[in-house]
Design goal:
Largest sheet: none
Distance between the termini: 109 Å
Shape: elongated
Order of helices and strands: HHHHHHHHHHHHHHHHHHHHHH
Number of helices: 22
Radius of gyration: 38 Å
């Protein structure tokens, strides 16, 4: 028997040589072995060729923390920034309140927003905070971006609110109340016309909210009880000064008689209607309350909001009809706001609004707007409490025309 020739195995030759377990010279297209034996030379498909397999390594078991990070949604850094701004800065601008009540806006209100089944309070917080950032950055590119974000969140908040009074009564009244306050601040800052303030309040069912929220005892026992007690304290502080001789002396006497058919006022027939006269009287009394609050350093937000948020629907209708008496009352409110220069959300082009109101009145009514609280009464009320009669007389003798200039902040 002839000896078997030694050979080396190959893993890269043709399939025929591999099957015969002989060395292939790897000559394409037919190797030498297959050619000499007149056999079919079959080669492997290159597309199915695979690299040598590496040894399998055990896969590490991910930690619970890593699994949580992989399942969590991506962070929206801008939203986090806006919420951080609210809890660090903007929360303290919603209302004039002592620190312990302001803390409710910083901690309790966001917690209620996150736990509420509907997101309208959360969206209102973000809209308010983004708008405050816009007021800080102004016309800078970042300020414009914050304004766009604020508008988006405000739209989401309005869309998420109950669509009817029945649904509003079934919702969490505390969450609705807080949304109402924040939304009112947003509307106040962004609307340019006094008469347009009614739209947002109609959307959220203002009368339904206040009907539910007049049961204060129940809410004093909740997480926002301290907030409500602070609001009560502000209202009581204003009420104590409302009917004093000083307030009566400072408030325009001509405005106090505007709801009456006096000989010096045009169109007396309008206010001979008892219902119309009462509507004007109520609006004037509310304005007197706002004016009194504007004299107190810790009641600026109250002064800015009490007249707009409490005016009756019948007065709002008269204002939208551009009745002269309604416009004159609104003009006095604008002048109070201009002098007070209150919270950031109340700083706007009040002189522009005043000019529009004056342009809507004919010559017979112009003199009713010639006496207005002047800018020079900063800290005036503190002087009056010290008995400075000269300060009072100087203040009362300084006229203020409603066409005085004012810088537009927002």
């Amino acid at each position: 028997m002839a000896p078997i020739r030694p050979h080396q195995k190959t893993r890269t030759g043709c399939l025929t040589c591999r099957k015969r377990k002989v060395k292939c010279d790897e000559t394409s297209i037919t190797c030498d072995n297959c050619s000499r034996r007149k056999m079919q030379c079959v080669w492997p498909d290159p597309s199915k060729a695979s690299s040598p397999k590496s040894p399998k390594m055990p896969r590490p078991t991910p930690s619970p923390e890593l699994s949580l990070c992989r399942s969590a949604p991506p962070f929206d850094m801008t939203t986090l920034e806006i919420m951080h701004h609210y809890t660090s800065v903007a929360y303290n601008t919603v209302y004039d309140q002592p620190p312990e009540a302001a803390e409710i806006w910083r901690t309790v209100v966001p917690r209620l927003a996150f736990s509420a089944p509907s997101p309208f309070l959360l969206h209102s917080i973000l809209a308010f905070s983004a708008l405050h950032l816009h007021s800080l950055y102004g016309s800078e590119p970042k300020g414009a971006e914050y304004l766009r974000i604020a508008r988006s969140y405000n739209t989401l908040a309005v869309r998420a609110l109950p669509a009817s009074q029945d649904l509003a009564q079934n919702a969490d009244q505390i969450v609705l109340f807080l949304t109402y306050i924040l939304g009112a601040r947003y509307k106040f800052a962004t609307e340019s016309s006094v008469s347009s303030q009614s739209e947002w309040f109609a959307e959220i069912g203002r009368s339904a909210l206040w009907t539910q929220l007049d049961r204060w005892d129940r809410y004093r026992k909740t997480d926002i009880g301290l907030l409500i007690r602070a609001l009560d304290s502000t209202d009581e502080a204003v009420s104590r000064l409302l009917d004093t001789d000083v307030t009566h002396a400072l408030f325009p006497h001509s405005l106090s008689r505007l709801h009456l058919p006096t000989p010096d006022a045009p169109d007396g027939d309008e206010v001979r209607d008892p219902a119309v006269s009462e509507t004007y009287a109520e609006a004037i009394n509310l304005l007197r309350r706002a004016f009194t609050a504007s004299l107190l350093p810790d009641c600026q937000a109250y002064a800015a909001s009490i007249w707009v948020t409490s005016m009756s629907d019948s007065f709002m209708e008269l204002l939208c009809q551009r009745r002269p008496r309604a416009l004159i009352i609104a003009g006095h409110y604008c002048a109070i706001m201009h002098r007070m220069k209150g919270p950031w959300w109340a700083r706007k082009g009040w002189s522009d609004e005043l000019s529009r109101i004056r342009a809507l009145l004919d010559d017979r009514w112009q003199r009713w707007l010639d006496w207005m609280p002047p800018d020079a009464c900063e800290g005036m009320f503190n002087e009056l409490e010290l008995g400075s009669d000269d300060g009072l007389m100087d203040w009362m003798s300084t006229p203020f025309l409603i066409t005085s200039p004012v810088s537009v902040h927002l």
